[in-house]
């Protein structure tokens, strides 16, 4: 990796989806990084899934949250964009206004990639936001018992051990592809960050797009994985940090993760609201020997943030380590 000089904004590509991604992006933006966010398009649940069923667009939920995290809009306009209709409003129940806007502009332009760039300009986004693919994808899982299931929202349902996941376009017979801008951003980056987010349903759906996965393997950038703090129901039950890396390396057939960020701070007993955060189980265990066997540099520290009886990454601390890495302060 060519280390950027401190008078140049480091080019950092972040791949993923879910609630963890905007936290990292917001803190990278605060440190003036040159950010490209590449967002998962295989979500079929909630408002995103419903819109996807009625309008042939990529699911907009994660894209909406990423746009807001990088936006310079006034607070009120952000709140309007994020507003979700009450469940009593039967026609629009559960839909976020931003999801409807993304779907409308995509239909108007006939291309989700162009629609997101237009919306990013309108929202004064500092950085680039790209969908991992320009068409909606279906995420499939094959379990160790040989059974299969299709649909991101169904994968964790039976709590089976996942052998592998893969993606296919929803309506065509060709393989999923990433836009040229996505590939170029990865190959020209100083750092590529994976996560935090659900391993099988937020991180891997991006990497299973063949040309995108190949770009991550072949980039000269430092590839960093931000390991989840908690194991996840039906996905990573009983996982260690090394298990996360083994799964990533197995899927791409290459030991491509250079560095892993691991939280070592203990979550207090009975802190989490188990009903509100019912998909998160126990803390991810540590297997530092296993990580060394995967040729991973380990940065272990207190990355924990406790808030609203939930467990999160401290975005400021994570980004501090990422910038230390990208500027070559780590040996």
UniProtKB/TrEMBL annotation:
Pfam families membership: CofD
Cellular component, GO annotation: cytoplasm
Compartments where located: Cytoplasm
GO molecular function, one term: LPPG:FO 2-phospho-L-lactate transferase activity
InterPro entries referenced in this protein's UniProt entry, alphabetically: CofD, CofD-like_dom_sf, Gluconeogen_factor
Stored HAMAP family: Gluconeogen_factor
Family, similarity comment: Belongs to the gluconeogenesis factor family.
PANTHER family: GLUCONEOGENESIS FACTOR-RELATED (PTHR30135:SF3), UNCHARACTERIZED PROTEIN YVCK-RELATED (PTHR30135)
Role this protein plays: Required for morphogenesis under gluconeogenic growth conditions.
Protein name (database record): Putative gluconeogenesis factor
